[in-house]
Amino acid sequence: MHPEVNNISNRLSLRKPRRDSLEALGSVLELIGFEGFVAKGGTQNVEAALESVRAAFPTAQEYQPDFVAELADRIVMLEVKAENEIETPQVQEKARLAREWCLHASTHSGAHGGKPWEYHLISHSAIQANMSLDTLLRQKSLT
Q: 3-state class of 35 per DSSP?
């Protein structure tokens, strides 16, 4: 771990998860050889640097949810999966990370007068053509 991570964390009195994020950033900087990258004016192969980060942090892949819907009282992130995929470790890890992201987004949004965020993982078989989003979310919360 970079000594700077400890210095910054202690100076700012960072709590978990911000300290975890700072530690991850320190790890990324070590992986890509950031000092050499800057010294060379950024001429290091950027794709190779990104690939090393992806290998070390597989959950840091770009993630785009299937749907994001703004409702009157909240913003909803929806991920639709086949019923047989919902319990797979990869889908469950993405769901965990998406829920965590929504918590952070809600905190930030709330501090700035915005709406809270929530995440829903939905089986494709739960969706019906004549169903509103509110009905789908109510039905999901009953199961």
A: helix
- Verdict on whether the full-model pTM lies above 0.90: no
Q: Residue 75: helix, strand or coil by DSSP?
A: strand
Q: Are 66 and 78 in contact (CB under 8 A)?
A: yes
Residue 8 pLDDT class (50, 70, 90 cuts): confident
Q: What 8-state DSSP symbol labels residue 15? A: P
17-21, 76-80, 88-92: lowest mean pLDDT where?
Answer: 17-21
Cis peptide before 17 (omega within 30 of 0): yes
Strand 117-123 with 75-81, pairing = parallel
Tokens representing residue 49 in the block: 């640097």
Cα(26)–Cα(9) distance, rounded to whole angstroms?
Answer: 11
C-alpha to C-alpha distance for 134 and 136, rounded to whole angstroms: 5
Q: Residue 60 — pLDDT band, cuts 50, 70, 90?
A: low
